[in-house]
Write a structure and sequence with these properties.
This protein is of the alpha/beta class. The chain has seven helices and five strands; from the N terminus they run βααβααβαβαβα. A five-stranded parallel β-sheet has the order 3-2-1-4-5, with helices on both faces. Helix 3 packs antiparallel against helix 4.
Length: 147
């Protein structure tokens, strides 16, 4: 059974726009069928909206935005997730959707660089998934492969 991952919008941008090499381990797992990325309509809509923003020197024209949308939709599996009782409330209400998706889709990991989400991970809530940075995920996976 593949790992189920949820990526927040900034991690998607690192993958699709900024070509962050730190995501290569995640990409390899997905390409090898060892992981799948889950997205829902709320997270999809946010990513589409953000792709239209000026992104530093990587502002995307309509064609580049469309290419990114096609790419992430071909990578991620669309799922629906109902709110799960007992989830903590994220300080940033816009990030709550990632918690809901990760819990409702039985994800193993939520990959994020968002401080509000990472703060929840440090608070030691009993979540049914792990909240980690891409770097933290890579370190965890490297330990798992050594054992």
């Amino acid at each position: 059974m593949p790992l189920r991952l949820v990526l927040d919008t900034n991690v998607w941008l690192d993958w699709l726009v900024f070509s962050d090499t730190g995501l290569e381990p995640v990409q390899s797992l997905v390409n090898d069928g060892k992981a799948e990325i889950i997205i829902d309509t709320d997270c999809d809509a946010e990513l589409v909206r953000v792709l239209d923003y000026p992104l530093q020197k990587w502002t995307l024209d309509a064609d580049a935005q469309a290419a990114c949308i096609r790419r992430f939709r071909s990578i991620a599996r669309l799922a629906s997730a109902a709110p799960v009782p007992g989830l903590p409330q994220c300080r940033d209400p816009d990030d709550q959707k990632f918690l809901i998706l990760a819990a409702g889709a039985d994800a193993h990991y939520l990959l994020t660089k968002d401080h509000a989400l990472l703060k929840l991970a440090k608070a030691r809530y009993r979540l049914p998934f792990h909240i980690v940075t891409p770097e933290g995920f890579r370190a965890l996976r490297s330990v798992e492969f050594k054992t």
